[in-house]
């Protein structure tokens, strides 16, 4: 359980490939933070290196665009040890991503290098609390829509929790 904190200055959203869920979350989070008047650096990354340098998946781009989120210019990258120094909060899209992030954090040589708090993206969400944002990569249109619905809900929940702080 994450100890309640006020608005972080930086948030990193992480999934497996950084081409479907986390780039979508990056743009949704950025827009919602701006609407709420919160100044937060937002970025995304993948636990794998499978799609480094790639644009978001075309299906994610299409579904995001239909909801007003333009993600076509984002470029996939892999999460690095530096991210644990450079971000206040790292949010995992699913439990496997969270376990993989925790393993990286545990292996950092210097505990001072691991200031970032880790949490599941859905942690603050009253509707989807504790749920994964399911990987849509091998899914259908409905799965990509579900990703957007869950991300909008969970991002809003984090922002509401910081506004109340
Ligand atoms: P993401 O989805 O983690 O939401 O970006 C995936 C993208 C690619 C693969 C798996 C999940 N892949 O197996 O290449």
Overview of the molecule:
It is a single chain. It contains 5 helices and 4 strands; from the N terminus they run βαβααβαβα. The protein is an alpha/beta fold and 165 residues long. The chain has a single domain, classed as 3-Layer(aba) Sandwich (Rossmann fold), CATH 3.40.50. The protein has a 4-stranded parallel β-sheet. The chain is globular and about 45 Å long. The mean pLDDT is 94. 4-nitrophenyl phosphate binds next to loops.
Q: Rg to the nearest angstrom?
A: 15 Å
Strand order of the largest sheet: 2-1-3-4
β content, as a range?
5-15%
CATH architecture: 3-Layer(aba) Sandwich
Number of strands: 4
> According to CATH, what is the class?
Alpha Beta
Q: Give the N-terminus to C-terminus distance in angstroms.
A: 17 Å
Low-confidence stretches: none
From the spread of the alpha carbons, the general shape counts as globular
Assigned CATH superfamily: Response regulator
What small molecules does this complex bind?
Answer: 4-nitrophenyl phosphate
| Estimated helix fraction | 25-40%
């Amino acid at each position: 359980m994450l100890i309640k904190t006020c608005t972080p200055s930086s948030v990193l959203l992480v999934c497996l490939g950084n081409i479907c869920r986390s780039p979508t979350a990056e743009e949704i989070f950025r827009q919602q933070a701006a609407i709420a008047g919160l100044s937060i650096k937002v970025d995304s990354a993948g636990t794998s290196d499978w799609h480094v340098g790639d644009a978001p998946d075309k299906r994610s781009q299409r579904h995001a665009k239909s909801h007003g989120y333009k993600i076509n210019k984002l470029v996939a990258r892999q999460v690095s040890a530096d991210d644990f120094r450079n971000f206040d909060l790292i949010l995992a899209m699913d439990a496997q991503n969270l376990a993989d992030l925790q393993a990286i954090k545990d292996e950092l040589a210097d505990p001072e290098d691991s200031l970032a708090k880790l949490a599941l993206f859905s942690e603050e969400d009253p509707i989807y609390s504790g749920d994964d944002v399911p990987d849509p990569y091998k899914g259908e249109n409905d799965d990509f829509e579900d990703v957007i619905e869950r991300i909008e809900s969970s991002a809003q929940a984090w922002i509401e929790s910081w506004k109340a702080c």
